[in-house]
Structures are given as structure tokens and as C-alpha cells.
Amino acid sequence: MGEANSKAVRIVVLGGGTAGWMSAAALARLLGPKARVELVESEDIGIVGVGEATLPHIRGFVERLGIDEARFMAATHATYKLGIDFRDFGRIGESYIHPFGSFGEELAGVPFHHYWLELHRQGLADDIGAYSLGVMAAKANRFQPPATDQSLAGTYGYAYQFDATLFGPFMRDFARGLGVKRTEGRVTHVERDATSGNVTELVLESGERIGGDLFVDCSGFRSLLLGDALGEGWEDWSHWLPCDRAAALPCEHVTEEIQPYTTATAMPAGWRWRIPLQHRVGNGYVFASDFVSEDEACAAILGAVEGKPLADPRVLRFTAGRRKRSWQNNVIAVGLASGFLEPLESTSIYLAQMAITYLIELFPDAAHGGAIDPRDRDEFNRLVDMEYDRVRDFLILHYHATTRDDSEFWNHVRTYQVPDTLADKLELWKRAGRIAKYADGLFYDASWIAVYIGQGLLPETHDARTQLPDPAQTSRAMDAFHAAVAQEVAAMPGHREYLLREAARLAPVPEGLAA
């Protein structure tokens, strides 16, 4: 025991909230005796707490830490999420669902969407969402966990919609149960080694000093360690993602059913979210202040919510971008201290989770005093940069792939020059209906297909092999697949019904929603 403690790397996490307590819990659980974790936070500093929708990767994180899904969902008033319903992005009046799952089935080595493009050209195909179990279940407001085999019932995934103000405290209690030490206090000074430049101690307002070998900066937009103390630069992406404000407020439920999906509706100067939880609905208008004032945005979201507002709109300010390096010296930034991308695709918690995962994989060897290998640090920065850059490109696509010309904002994003990395992906799709392949990172084929086709961006050509079979035969096969999807959906319970059925595990659904 003494030997293990002597070799333990002392990790100090600065900042609570979602990123801080996720980091502390994961480091304590997955590194065990190799790490001794202490988290410093001040109750006087609030958390952002509006990101309530997630991606399916959070399920793996919860499972890997040994957290019971039911316990987690009960504590955060969570609902299930099958995807995101995008409305009015390509054209006003049109919508599509980006599902957590696939479209159709590959045939003879040719991806399904090429067959769909060929039959669509001939007027023989339904909306591509009709060939996705995840899309059709979402549209029908039905849910059940996917099968774990290779059957049709296993072709979709799910995430959660939860109250972010409850998620942080849940992770705090879990982390403290793992032995994470919590220290209350506000940092007033950061001590650094004169030779190496490494952070050595955090000095609190009380005079207490917190020493460590490795510091994880989860101080939010303030980035007290990586940004302020170490002076790591910021890469500003606001010229591509001009939304820099969000007006957020919760409201009451007005429908009996609880949708198993998040809604993103395009607005004249941005977009607004709708996230149904067990006990309320989260709403917000993400907007560009160059195109609409804060007062106008607050009035717009108040006018758009369906139920009785439970609070006044709260305005958050931010800038899209990331740190040029997320790991410098012995400081690693996680969450908002590392970067920010608007929650259009619910990526905020994923990006924090991703950084934690890479840190654990590249963690300094405790047996050698926790010395940092510069190669590991460089690889961490490469991986984090790649994740942020690919998410950035995917978000830009939602704005740029539009025909909307009804406002100054949409004219701007429709006509600006996109990053070369996205321009290459767009060219590959427009020319041949192909999706850029990569081994790592977020958003694979189905995600890009959902947005490309959903926003009316059809390619000039597609795989010529789709013209070999008899069109009528291909159409019958697609009809059979569509019918199989419909049969699977019909057998599912409604989302609200499933939550009520599982109420003993997932916490009672509030009065007024129960039958």
C-alpha cells in the first residue's frame, strides 16, 4: 500500500461541474492506485449547465466507470435520445432526423445510400429516413433498447437527455465514493517551477496550497491554468461559426408523450434547441449577436417555447474555437477550458469525455515519478485537435449546405468560404456521393449522409454498380426493408410508456405525465 501510494501521480483537477467531476471520477476509477486525485472548486462559481443532450458515447463512459444506468438516469431525470430532428436548415418547412444508427443495408459491397440515390433519381424511393430504424422509431415517439446482435433491431443506438445541473453533482458523489478528495476554495495564484515552467501549486484565497504532479484544467471558459497561467493561445473559429450567444430557459411539458429525440430548429440568426426531460423541457436560442440583439433573442425564445417558462432566459456568451494546444507542460485542459463548439450536434460532453479517454491512454508512467513523455503530450494534442477540427467541419456543414436566403445571417453562412478540410469532403460528395473515410474521430458515414441528403445536397453522380440490378427488383428489396423497419417500430412501446414501465428503475415520471 505504501509503495503504491509513493508511486501515485498526484492529480489536481481545477473546477467542478460536468468536465471536472467526469475527469476526477474517470481518473480515480480507471487509474486506481496509479493516481491520487484531488478536485478544487468554489461554490461561488456557477456552472454553465445548459448542455442537456448527449451522444451514444456517454453510454460507454457510464458503463466503463461501473455506473448503473438506472441510477444515473434517476438522479438526472434523464430520457432516452435516438437522434436530432433538424428543422428549417436546408429550406424552411423541411426537416430530417440525424439518427444514431444506419440507413438500409450494404449490397454487393455498395453502400445503401448509392442505391437510394439511384432509385430517388428514378422517383422510386421514399425519404431516406424511412430506411432507418432509429429515424422511424424517433418519428413514432417509440423506444426500446437496441438488440445486441447483428439483426435489424441492433442497427441503432441511443444516448441520453438529462438535466446538466444534476449530472455534475451525481458525478461528484460518485467520484468522492472512489476516494477523490474535494477542496473548497477559489484560486488566487498559480505557482510555477522557474526552470521547467510546470505548475507546482495552486494558492487558494484561504492561503491553502494545493500541490500536484499533473493539473487538469476544468475551469471553464476562464481556463485559469492553460489559458491564463501558461498563456496557451486560442484559435478563433467565429468567422465560420458566428453564433456567440445562447439564451436558455426551461419550461413545463405540454404534451403527454416525451419525444425520444432533441429538436434543433433554424432561426433567423441561428437555431434553437428543445430537449425533453422527465420533469421539464430545456430550450435555448443559439444566436449570432452581429445579427440579432440579446433582447430580441430572449423575446424570440420566450415566444417559441410551448409550455409555461420556469425561469427567465439566461444569456451565455462564448466564442467558437479551441486552444492551440490542450496539453502544455503538466497542464491538460478538458471541456470548455480546452475549446467550445456550440451544441448543434450535442458534442460538448463528448469532447470532454474524449479528452479524458486520451489522457488515460497516454497517462505518465507512475513508476517513473509521473514524468511526462513529450511524445505522449504531442499525440494527445494531435488527437484532441483532430476531434475538434472534425466536429467543427460537421457543424459548419449544417449552416453552409442551405438554400436559405431569408436573412442576413443565412446569406452570410451560405456564401462564406469553408475550411479546406470541409471543402474536400464536400467536393467528394458532390462529385460522386462518397463519404471521406477516417479511422478515428466522430461522425461516420450515416451522420454525413443524414445532413447532406436531409439538407438537399444531392451528388452529381453515384456508384455505377447500382444501375446493374433491375430497378424494380431493387425497389422491391427496399420496400421489404422499409416494411421490416415499420414492423420493428410497431412492436416498440412509446417512449413515455417505456419510461413509466421502467419507473421503478429510472425514477417516477412526475405527476401530470403519468397515466
Describe this structure as you would to a colleague:
This protein has helices at 2-7, 17-31, 57-64, 69-76, 112-121, 133-139, 164-177, 224-229, 294-304, 348-361, 374-400, 408-415, 420-432, 445-454, 471-490, 495-501, 503-506; strands at residues 9-14, 35-41, 79-81, 83-87, 95-99, 159-161, 181-184, 187-192, 199-204, 209-211, 214-217, 234-236, 245-251, 262-267, 270-276, 281-287, 314-317, 321-323, 327-328, 331-333, 339-340. With 515 residues, the chain is an alpha+beta fold. The protein has a domain at 2-52 and 163-238 and 320-372: FAD/NAD(P)-binding domain (3-Layer(bba) Sandwich), CATH 3.50.50. The strands form five sheets. A seven-stranded mixed beta sheet has the order 5-4-14-15-16-13-17. Strands 7-2-1-11-20-19 form a six-stranded mixed beta sheet. A hairpin with a 4-residue loop joins strand 9 (199-204) and strand 10. The radius of gyration is 24 Å and the shape is globular. The N and C termini lie far apart (55 Å). The relative contact order is 0.17.
Structural category:
alpha+beta
State the strand order across the main sheet: 5-4-14-15-16-13-17
Looking at the chains present, what oligomeric state does this protein adopt? single chain
Please state the CA-atom Rg, rounded to the nearest Å. Answer: 24 Å
> Low-confidence stretches at least 5 residues in length (pLDDT < 50)?
1-5, 508-515
Strand content: 15-25%
- What is the CATH architecture annotation of the domain at 2-52 and 163-238 and 320-372? 3-Layer(bba) Sandwich
Instruction: Count the E strands.
Output: 21
Mean pLDDT, to the nearest integer, reads: 92
The rough form would be described as: globular
* Largest β-sheet summary: 7 strands, mixed
Output the CATH topology of the domain at 2-52 and 163-238 and 320-372: FAD/NAD(P)-binding domain
Helix content: 25-40%
Q: What is the terminal-to-terminal distance?
A: 55 Å
By CATH, the superfamily of the domain at 2-52 and 163-238 and 320-372 comes out as: FAD/NAD(P)-binding domain
* CATH top level label of the domain at 2-52 and 163-238 and 320-372: Alpha Beta
H/I helix tally: 17
